[in-house]
Design goal:
The complex is a heterodimer of chains A (285) and B (309). Chain A contains eleven helices and no strands. Chain A has 285 residues and is mainly alpha-helical. Chain B has 13 helices and no strands. The chains are: A mainly alpha (285), B mainly alpha (309). Chain A: One of its GO terms (biological process) is transmembrane transport.
């Protein structure tokens, strides 16, 4: 199926079409941040605070209001989108890479190597992902790249397990056996038969994984072990203003909505993509 | 068959716990720059640091250090807090009660909401109600716990004044944090119950039950639900890791004096032994929950083959 056909089929569902538009918007805004942001995200505006020094609610000058330091919330959200997407792509890319490597090796080689690799994923599953990420981030002193690495280190496990069972399923199909009897080398089977069949699964998990990554980054930043201020991230904007949230509610509401909408969009698109690329799974959770 | 299955499953749980101890050991003693200096504090003399190093056995070879750590763990010694100068195990056991209480309520709500919404969606399959509920389940799993907690606090505690602003003690205190955990976690359950129910509804014995004149409700609760609910049991085991992650956040936003809040306070002070201690206890809880789930499933559904793996 060609790429345009897939997109067209996905857009049949209204919710998925809206999600795709939202994702494209967030990506463009993040890329064009220096041109679309109305203010400097790190500038502490003198007229950005009330006479008493409290943050301003949404108004004509600062469309979504200002934060505790008098910075423009909208501009911080726009630059925060960069942070979320960079971590989403880097962390998720590494997780997919490790997960695919482990899953394919375990499913293709099997034997002792396969057993050990899969027992390793069992071991990782015994830890609550958030707590393990917190422990790692606290020990490693976070920067944006460390945060991405930490998220990748807890997120590859799911991917590995899915790719593993998929590899087993594909390897046991007849055309692989036929290829083998025809004398195809292991490498040839791997690259020209196995990987192309794994591609839909990888694409689905790459999409769903961005949602998980965005949520985990936001939570880590909210707990103070994620992206460190002054670099804006949707999670640390809420972290910085959490004690004020009853009096300056926009400081939680807008970044919160941004996180939920982006995560929801990637979840909806990933789910629809799964139905589209693997009809046998249609209608299943 | 069954005793062998139980023994194998138990042995495997012990093996996983050994692996857990090894990873927590790495986190505690291999990654930080110098655990002895961290424990001694900033103003300690070189002699004190050397003493602590000897006490912890940090001058021994690697495998001896790990063995030493493992023996301590088995005796319930999780090390000492960097900041609070107390045993991590004492800190943890003082927080266990409130956490268990919130967990019980939270998982209860999760199952109640997830199973009933999943059933409703399956019965109303392909209608607007079904689509609405499934969209809702996605919103639930796409919402981070800290945002939902703060939104609910603002809406139901600050503005509407239905609940207290957090705290611990009365029944009214547990309700909002438990509902938050339940609502967010119910998404995966409702999706799973929906699909497993649709599968059961399409089977022959359901048509037989209907055609012999049983009422819809009776078929639903006597025949469909008991069959559709089986996959929920292992799901609880799998979900518990995600649930504990949510617990850390919900407890810290609502000021609930449990393990999650302890972890959160430890994060603010970079008190690594406490963070790792809570991680370790959670891993033990997850292994035990999965063990129980695996042992329960064949009891609930005797048709399941035990030696699939």
């Amino acid at each position: 199926m060609s790429f345009p056909t897939v997109i067209r089929n996905l857009c049949r569902h209204k919710s998925v079409a809206v999600s795709l538009v939202l994702i494209v918007t967030v990506i463009s805004v993040a890329v064009l941040a220096p041109w679309v942001a109305p203010h400097d995200p790190n500038m502490q505006y003198f007229d950005g605070l009330t006479m008493e020094g409290a943050p301003l609610p949404p108004n004509d000058e600062f469309l979504l209001g200002t934060d505790l330091l008098g910075r423009d919330l909208l501009s911080r959200l726009i630059y925060g989108a960069q942070t979320s997407l960079i971590i989403g792509i880097v962390a998720n890319g590494i997780a997919i890479l490790i997960g695919t490597l482990v899953g394919v090796s375990a499913g293709f080689i099997r034997g002792w190597t396969g057993t050990i690799l899969m027992r390793l994923t069992d071991l990782m599953m015994a830890f609550p992902a958030l707590l393990l990420a917190i422990a790692l981030a606290a020990i490693l002193q976070p920067s944006i790249w460390i945060v991405a690495l930490v998220i990748a280190m807890v997120n590859w496990v799911q991917v590995a397990r899915v790719i593993y069972s998929e590899t087993i399923a594909i390897s046991s199909r007849e055309f692989i056996a036929v290829e083998r009897t025809l004398g195809a080398s292991t490498l040839r089977i791997l690259f020209s038969h196995l990987l192309p069949h794994l591609l839909p699964t990888i694409m689905v998990w790459a999409t769903l994984g961005i949602s998980t990554t965005v949520l985990l980054e936001a939570t880590l930043s909210f707990l103070g072990v994620g992206v460190q201020p002054p670099t804006p991230s949707w999670g640390n904007i809420i972290f910085e203003s959490q004690t004020y949230f009853t009096s300056a509610f926009w400081l939680v509401l807008f970044p919160g909505l941004a996180i939920i909408l982006l995560a929801l969009s990637f979840n909806l698109v990933g789910d629809a993509l799964r139905d589209e690329l693997d009809p046998s799974l249609k209608g299943r959770g | 068959m069954m005793p062998i299955y139980i023994l194998r499953r138990l042995g495997y749980a012990v093996l996983i716990l050994l692996g857990v101890s090894f990873i927590t050991y790495l986190l505690l003693y291999m990654i930080p720059a110098d655990p002895a200096r961290q424990l001694a504090g900033r103003s300690a003399t070189a002699e004190t640091v050397a003493n602590i190093r000897a006490q912890l056995g940090l001058d021994l070879p690697f495998y001896q250090q790990y063995f030493h750590y493992l023996m301590n763990l088995i005796q319930g010694d999780l090390g000492r807090s960097y900041i609070q100068r107390t045993e991590v195990s004492a800190l943890i056991s003082s927080r266990l009660g409130p956490t268990m209480e919130l967990m019980a309520w939270g998982i209860g709500f999760e199952l109640l909401i997830g199973v009933s919404l999943g059933m409703l969606a399956a019965i109303k399959r392909n209608t607007a109600i079904d689509r609405f509920l499934m969209a809702l389940s996605f919103v639930g799993v796409s919402s981070p716990h800290f945002i939902a907690s703060m939104l609910f606090l603002y809406l139901f505690a600050v503005n509407l004044d239905w609940f207290p602003l957090g705290g611990y003690g009365e029944f009214e205190h547990v309700l909002l944090p438990a509902l938050t955990l339940g609502l967010l976690g119910s998404g995966w359950y409702s999706r799973m119950v929906r699909s497993s129910m649709i599968e059961v509804l399409e089977q022959d014995f359901i048509r037989t039950a209907r055609s012999k004149g049983l009422t819809r409700l009776r078929v639903l609760f006597r025949h469909v639900l008991p069959n559709a609910i089986v996959p929920v049991i292992p799901m609880i085991g799998i979900d518990i890791g995600i649930f504990i992650g949510g617990l850390v956040v919900v407890e810290s936003v609502f000021g609930w004096p449990g393990l999650g809040q302890l972890a959160w306070q430890a994060i603010q002070r970079v008190d690594i032994p406490v963070i790792v201690g809570v991680t370790m206890i959670s891993a033990v809880a997850i292994v035990i929950a999965n063990l129980i789930a695996d042992l329960l499933v064949p009891l609930v559904d005797p048709r399941i083959e035990l030696d699939k793996s």
